[in-house]
Specification:
By secondary structure, this protein is α/β, with parallel strands linked by helices. It has 18 helices and 21 strands.
């Protein structure tokens, strides 16, 4: 019999519900619902519209009825953000968006309480002001009354699963994005939390991906007129769901999960927590099956997305396909920015900031939209190449293949530039890696697929046969070494 499961994947700009079907030999995907994810700024604070997003979750469950029996559902989201519940389980307020300005200055304050070397040695996370620990410090400093009312903290995927099942838990991969997860103990970093002034009573039990959380509540089934289904803790962090779907056969491989953020990394057996790794800004996260996802967060297609929004405000409308084609026609490598410079993090006029950056760094200043777009493409490729060089230094391993997955894998120019600049062969796809990984973990949890290796083989061999390669140039002496 064909098994059907539902994957609900929330990205930073949109979400979708996908049904995964498995007949014992082939995994197939079908999208049944897609929706935007639009933050709301109110009273100077940027929020996620959780109420609407939960309604979209309910709509996904209702729509799934048309497709026959759905055995389980799994939810993945972006990392670091959370909701606070009171002692009666009520949501105290909409979760605050990681791009909100409330965490400005929190890093230096944190390091006055605990040395950054010590914090990294425990948590292994790249230091970014958006991380959960620093968001909580901001709440502690500026909204103490909110924490006084708070009983539990739930990361975004488990905030959804709580309102589906009534169970308060934290899945391991999403816990590892918080800067409050102990890499060695695979538990909450209680000592670090105490030093940062964060009350550990907020934490819930950490469970591994592949655990059944519960079933839909009776009230929800009655309200929506839907049958019972299991709720499975998949890899709650969307990056780790995507990693679960990388169709690699070799042990040593690179992945580039390319969307609003670019996550470039590899899969390891143990975390790497050295001072060199800390200084280079690499993260260790919990991956499926007890593995470690060793990766770096790089600002990705956000630069193109936000530039496009700015041009729309100015009356010029480009599709992403238009932008790729425009970039192909421009002269390459006239200007290179650092995509991770803090100036590019906030929303707003990215093209103007790029021109200012180039001027301040003595480079050619892009003269039109096309040159701005080409600058972004070239800069991302150089940033990826730099990260590949760093990861080889950190792990002591040599990598010949990079699997480019996620929505950005549609962009063949970015894949070609990445291969040209880094010298690494780029394998394109699957585009729907996050949904596939979500589905694969559900099928492993149910026993329909025996392990992650089999899931990756199925993804590579059948519906998502990965055939497209972009060959990297010979690595000695290429642009990677400059």
């Amino acid at each position: 019999m064909t098994k059907q499961v539902l994957a609900i994947d929330f990205g930073a700009s949109s979400g979708r519900a996908m049904i995964g079907r498995f007949d014992g030999e082939r995994i197939n995907l079908e999208e049944i619902h897609r929706f935007s994810n639009d933050p709301v700024t109110l009273g100077g604070t940027m929020y996620w519209d959780f109420l609407r997003l939960f309604r979209e979750t309910e709509q996904s469950l209702v729509l799934s009825k048309e497709y026959g029996r759905i055995d389980s559902v799994g939810i993945d989201t972006w990392g670091v953000d959370f909701g606070l519940l009171d002692k009666n389980g009520r949501l105290l307020e909409n979760p605050v968006h990681y791009r909100d300005k409330r965490t400005k200055g929190m890093l230096s304050e944190a390091f006055s309480l605990i040395p950054e070397e010590s914090l990294y040695a425990v948590t292994g996370n790249q230091f970014m002001e958006i991380n959960t620990a620093f968001q909580l410090m901001s709440v502690q400093r500026n909204r103490q009354e909110l924490l006084e009312r708070a009983d539990k903290l739930l990361m975004m995927p488990n905030l959804f699963t709580y309102f589906l099942t009534g169970e308060k838990v934290t899945e391991q991969s999403i816990a590892s994005t918080t800067q409050l997860y102990d890499q060695a103990g695979k538990c909450w970093a209680y000592g670090a939390a105490e030093k940062l002034g964060i009350q550990s009573s907020l934490f819930t039990n950490i469970i591994p991906a592949g655990t059944k959380i519960g079933t839909l509540t009776g009230s929800l089934m009655s309200e929506l007129d839907i049958p019972a289904m299991d709720v499975i803790a998949v890899c709650g962090h969307d990056t780790q769901s995507a990693l679960a779907a990388v169709p690699a056969k070799e042990k040593d491989f690179l992945f580039l999960s390319c969307g609003t953020w670019s996550l470039l990394g590899t899969e390891l057996d143990e975390p790497v927590l050295t001072d060199d790794v800390r200084r280079l800004g690499w993260s260790n996260e919990a991956a499926y099956g007890g593995k470690v996802s060793f990766l770096k967060n790089i600002i990705g297609l956000w630069l193109l997305q936000e530039s496009r929004r700015q041009w729309q405000r100015e009356g010029r409308n480009y599709s992403f396909a238009d932008m790729e084609e425009t970039a192909r026609r421009e002269k390459p490598f006239q200007s290179i920015i650092d995509p991770d410079d803090p100036v590019f993090v906030p929303a707003g006029n990215i093209p103007e900031r790029i021109k200012r950056y180039c001027s301040e760094h003595g480079q050619h200043i892009p003269q039109n939209d096309s040159e701005v777009i080409r600058c972004i493409y070239d800069s991302l490729a150089f940033k990826y190449a730099e990260a590949i060089k760093e990861i080889e230094k950190c792990t002591g391993r040599h990598y010949n293949k990079l699997y480019m997955i996620g929505g950005g894998a549609r962009d063949r120019l970015l894949a070609k530039l990445t291969a040209d600049v880094s010298g690494v062969d780029v394998i394109i796809g699957p585009v729907e890696a996050t949904a596939l990984g979500n589905i694969a973990v559900q099928l492993i949890a149910s026993g329909d697929i025996p392990d992650i290796g089999t899931a990756r083989r199925l993804i590579a061999e059948y519906e998502y046969n990965i055939k497209e390669y972009v060959r990297g140039r010979s690595r000695p002496g290429n642009a990677h070494s400059t």
